[in-house]
Amino acid sequence: MRRLIDALQPGQRVYVPSFSAESALLHDELRADPERARGVTFCGVQFPGIDRIDYLALHPEARQVAYFMSPAIRAGLADLTGPARGRAELLSLDYLGIVRRLQDEPPVDLAIAQLTPPDADGYCSPGVSADFLPLVWARAKRRIAHLNPCMPRTRGSFRVHVSELDFAVEAEAPLLDFADPRSGALEARIGAYVAPLVRDGDTLQFGIGAVPSALASALTSHRHLRFHGGMIAASLQTLWEAGAMDLDARITTGVVLGDSRLRDFAARLEPLWLTDVTQTHGVAALAAIPRLIAINAAVEVDLFGQVNSERAGGVIQAGAGGLPAFAQGALASPGGRLLICLPATARRGEVSRIVPALDAQALCTVPRYLTDAVVTEHGVAELRGLSLDARAQALIAIAAPEHRASLSGAWDQIRRTA
Predict the structure, then answer these.
(1) Domain containing 235: what range?
(2) Which of 91, 301, 370, 410 is buried deepest, with most CB atoms within 10 A?
(3) Per-residue pLDDT for 85 more than 80?
(4) What's phi and psi for 109, nearest 5 deg?
């Protein structure tokens, strides 16, 4: 019986499915016959905490190009002398940078997709993920697919006719489940501060995590809300079932990320429209949406308003992702807002996440001139239009009370040399 991995050859660059479209069949085949990974460079937009396949661990001569830090990539980068040396490559790109790379670099030798089986007209749906695959699919030298009857059929701008496939393997396999972290009292307080900033009829963008879950609960009394973002998770379903969403407005996203309950919901959701990253994250497309409210998380924010969402304690946790695009797009949207949400402290209150200035252990994901409002469990710092000192004071006011005095002292020192 033919396998997906029969198409792999040493020296190939292979685009692999990721996020919720990661193929359990591909994973099982590679684990059963890791020799097929010899000399192969795997590329795909794997996200830490979601994707599970460690391509570098398959074979000592396997390679991987990554856009987000993960434990597997960190191990590959850290091995400077051993067999993994030089096999991992981490690119410093946000989503729009990834788009440019995928469009400008030479076509991949092989693109692997996980799709639904064909419909009566021979078309397969990408199901739960249509973000980056469309950007490489048409240019790939060869195209193969895992046709999974478990994959829900969704509507969107991308579909694949069976005639496009060099070959396919149809096999039922479990889809990747994802559960949002549970929200608690702290996240509920953040959500309670965000909710008044959202108006009925606004278009929301938010991702995954405990804060979006809490925010969804805080927004259930709103009405006619819309959604445009990179992914939908269980929080979107919460809003829909509460009657908070505009039933007639298109819900645009690139990824459905959740469990079987969310996938079943997505398959039935008529307004849902999956499309690629140029449409979900394109700054011009975002700017054309009135009252786009982009709600995103961060590791820390400094008193200038610079946002670090990538590096904690000198360790890269992920990547810039879609935040830079949503920051620019939301601020260009008529009536749009950019809301950065984060707990005020880390390490059980020992470390303030409102910091005097980003240091050598941080990365600046959003520059100070794009930061609009910052929200912690202690309140909202409205930064737009404020002076240098007023911004710092607004941010100190939403820091944890036990850290405010030290932040004020640090700011006094900074101002003497600013």
Answers:
(1) 185-417
(2) 301
(3) no
(4) -70, -30
